[in-house]
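Dear Dr. K.,

Following up on our conversation at the group meeting, I've run the structure prediction for FMN dependent NADH:quinone oxidoreductase from Variovorax terrae. I'm pasting the input sequence below exactly as I used it, so you can double-check it against your construct before we proceed with anything downstream. Let me know if the numbering doesn't match what you have in your notebook.
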Amino acid sequence: MNILHIDSSPMFETSNSRKLSAMVVALLQERYPGCNILHKDLARDPPPHLTQDVYLAYRRPEAELTPQQRRERAVTDAHIEQFLASDIVVIGAPLYNLSLPTQLKAWIDRISQPGRTFRYAERGIVGLVSNVRVIVASSRGGLYSLSEEGRARDFQERYLLAALKTLGIAHIDIVRVEGVNMSADRRAEAYAKAQAAADDIVSSILASRPQWQRAALV
Ligand SMILES: Cc1cc2nc3c(=O)[nH]c(=O)nc-3n(C[C@H](O)[C@H](O)[C@H](O)COP(=O)(O)O)c2cc1C
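The predicted structure tokens came back this morning:
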């Protein structure tokens, strides 16, 4: 089983999303001892932001691409191939200014490409990614999930769910630590809840696999 472990926080030692994504990956590793893990650090090695060349590299016939567009196409292809080769993608996602860090948005801009991960059909966009499962490890200083008003202001989890579903991904779980900047007690409680939620998610993934695979994995 291939796991793609993505971190996107520009913070390192103090990062909550990194701590949380590592916790989820450790649980997966415990349950799937033979799994392959690829760690991708979007803060240390950010995908260059979207430009016209990035865009055109996937929308012009290959023979007409400029050298720069060819280079961009190769970078985008590498991101897409890593993504599509994964059974599970764990995304460490901090909430910054009600949204995502730009490093993570730049990665989504790379992997969202017509003909590879989605296509245009008569009824709109159709996702082409059916085999990848995603666990979002979300961290936020305040509280959002507990009220309608909070959820409406949360453009991080809502955006990630919408963007990944657009690509066809049906199984998306969210593990979150929320209110981490409010108090030490609140933070400790958030981690305890997240640990239990991650445990349930990892168990449900195992239970959803066919019996012969389960026998080989446990
Ligand atoms: C630039 C910046 C913007 C932030 N914006 C928000 C915000 O809009 N809402 C919130 O609840 N917390 C906000 N926070 C707090 C972070 O969500 C919190 O520190 C979380 O742990 C970030 O994940 P990280 O530690 O992995 O970087 C912000 C923090 C930073 C550094």
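Two things stood out to me. Residues 5 and 39 are 5 Å apart (CA to CA). The chain has one domain: 2-217.

Best regards,
J.T.
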